[in-house]
Amino acid sequence: MTGFFTLLYKELLRFWKVGFQTVFAPIVSTLLYLMIFSHVLEEHVEAYPGVAYTVFLVPGLIMMSMLQNAFANSSSSLIQSKVTGNLVFVLLSPLSHTEVFFAYVLASVARGLAVGMGVYLVTLAFFDVPLASFTWVFMFALMGSALLGAIGVIAGIWAEKFDQLAAFQNFVILPLTFLSGVFYTIRSLPPFWQGLSHLNPFFYMIDGFRYGFFSVSDTSPYISLGIVATCFVGVSWLTLLMLKTGYKIRH
Amino acid sequence: MTLAIEVKQLHKRFSNLQALGCVDLEIEAGEFFALLGPNGAGKTTLINIIAGLTLPSSGSARVMGYDVVAAYRQARRMLGVVPQELVFDPFFTVHETLVIQSGYYGLKNNGRWIDEILHHLDLTGRAGANMRTLSGGMKRRVLVAQALVHKPPVIVLDEPTAGVDVELRQGLWRFMKQLNRDGHTIMLTTHYLDEAEALCNRVAMLKQGHIVVLDSIRNLINSLSGCLLRLRLVPDVLPPALLPLANSGEEGYHILALKDYSQLEGVMTALRMAGTQVLEMGVLQPDLEDVFVTIMGGGGSKGPATVLA
After folding, report:
1. Count of other CB atoms within 10 angstroms of residue A58
2. Distance from CA of B156 to the nearest CA of A (A)
């Protein structure tokens, strides 16, 4: 287990050493979203009855920042190690593919939770955001970050250059996040787009996470959690297979 | 006795390139072994397969008896590899790098050994420095240190002295000799054949993915019969009788290739008959480089058998 904990420690230390960029910067940019959208839309939209738009927006933005940062952590760490060549130190070591997988995913979860917690604490100073069930909030935060951490491992292994990773982020992760109901409730969408949104796993993460705050959601949180957990298991299986066979990293 | 490295019928193919073709190699524990060959001969591929960085197409490799694929955890614990490229993690200091590397091998309190390696590699003063701030030579030393954190019985160095200054090179070899005396098996690749000749007891020469020579350095040099005679003459003209022996000369010198020492007498007689005075004479012993050139030069794209014959 020492090997696993060392890799986890190294991954945590890596983002913590540049915490200004990896934790503080995303907190600031998320708050900017919050300020701008709440200013523009506050009077026009009421997503749930009795819930102000800004307050509705807060959980969505927290989740979005967690997902993006969890993805960024494992993917950027892996691509940097691949491009600079220092991944060789992990590959030469007796660490198993399972240990490598969990170390990268847990480090991603840690960064996701750190950013999410930061955003939440700062918003508390400005808005009165209810917290109906900490358990639901935590479950979705954990599963969402873990899923995106695992997807980040896949992207980091698959990408050979930084621009390929950027493409993955801009054309897969970003649209899925933005179109998942961060800024709106999908009930406001036409039926076709509502149906389409239900195919987006990111929707269930945001919806379930929001349920933890307001006890209101578009889909039952049990179903949402089940879908997110299923996605995590599927993605993890694929990631472990890639690591085990040495896809793109052991030639 | 356990073999430090045992490679059996190893093949490696990269899409349409045959990198290794049926390599068999046994290195006994305690050897100081050199893997030689021109660029692209397959040295690094062979090392990478032994290290588990590359998967073989067929065949097997073992380190201290452990299969590098089936029992990779044990095999990797037995092996320390110094990679050819100067790689480092820019987020960490030298000391952090070594503590982390120890942890990967399951070692928690490795401080004393880390300090000892730092001392041997003359890195103690830079232990707290970030990897980014180190010079190329310093980074190379850290790579060596990283390969040694878990005291591996088998150490593999892939061109450790490429682009390294004389002082570091000598220091590095001193340290490797000491480790070899302490019982570590050492395998290296290098393009400096004098280094291999001075350090190693056995060599393998790779050519186009095949081992074409595998022998002790003494045997290899002895296998080149004859010697070279280096002469400075007045007048500076070779008597016609000696022209058939003439080898590529250098400015002001004549080099004669002799099949054996008994030919020496004939040479002296020919010179005396021609009235040529000998200003300077030296006998050149063949060295590993001559062996290397003979083996790599001959044969072109012929298979290993023809080259050996």
Report:
1. 23
2. 12
Evaluate whether A233 touches A101 at the Cβ level (below 8 Å). no
pLDDT values of chain A reduced to their tens digit, one per residue, 251 residues: 889 999 999 999 999 998 898 899 999 999 898 888 888 877 766 777 778 888 888 999 999 999 999 999 999 999 999 999 999 999 999 999 999 999 999 999 999 999 999 999 999 988 888 999 999 999 999 999 999 999 999 999 999 999 999 999 999 999 999 899 888 888 888 899 888 899 999 999 999 999 999 999 889 999 999 999 999 999 999 999 999 999 999 98
Residues of B in contact with A2 (CB under 8 A): 103, 106-108
Contact yes or no for B36/B205 (Cβ under 8 A): yes
Please give the single-letter amino acid code of residue A125. Answer: A
Name the residue in chain A with its Cα closest to that of B57.
A251
**Which H/E stretch holds residue B100?**
helix B94-104
A20 touches chain B (CB under 8 A): no
C-alpha B66/C-alpha B57 separation (Å) is 18
| Residue contact A6–B103, C-beta within 8 A | yes
The Cα of B296 is separated from the nearest Cα of chain A by a number of Å equal to 28
Whether residue A248 contacts residue A158, with contact meaning beta carbons closer than 8 Å, is answered with yes
- The DSSP-derived string for A213-233 is HHS--SS-HHHHHHHHHHHHH
- Residues of A in Cβ contact (< 8 Å) with B45: none
**A206, A180 Cβ separation under 8 angstroms:** yes
Compare all CA atoms of chain A with the CA of B50 and give the residue at the minimum distance.
A92
- Domain ranges for chain B, please list them: 3-78+152-221, 225-285
Asked whether the ipTM of the predicted complex exceeds the cut of 0.95, the reply is no
B96 neighbourhood in chain A, CB within 8 Å: 13
pTM of the model: 0.87
Nearest to B53 among A81, A86, A250 (CB): A250
A185's enclosing H/E stretch is none
CB A150 within 8 A of CB A236: yes
Of B158, B179, B159, whose CA–CA distance to B31 is shortest? B179
Pick the CATH number of B3-78+152-221 from 1.10.510.10, 1.10.287.130, 3.30.930.10, 3.40.50.300: 3.40.50.300
Cα gap A219→B296, rounded to integer Å: 72
CB contact (8 A) between residue B52 and residue A14: no
Which chain B residues have a beta carbon less than 8 Å from that of A81?
89
Q: Are B44 and B189 in contact (CB under 8 A)?
A: yes
Look up residue A177 and give its two tokens.
């996040």
Q: Which CATH number fits domain B225-285: 1.10.1760, 1.10.3470, 3.30.70, 1.10.3210?
A: 3.30.70
> What pLDDT is recorded for position B306?
32
Burial category of A46 from C-beta neighbours within 10 Å (exposed 0-12, middle 13-18, buried 19 and up): middle
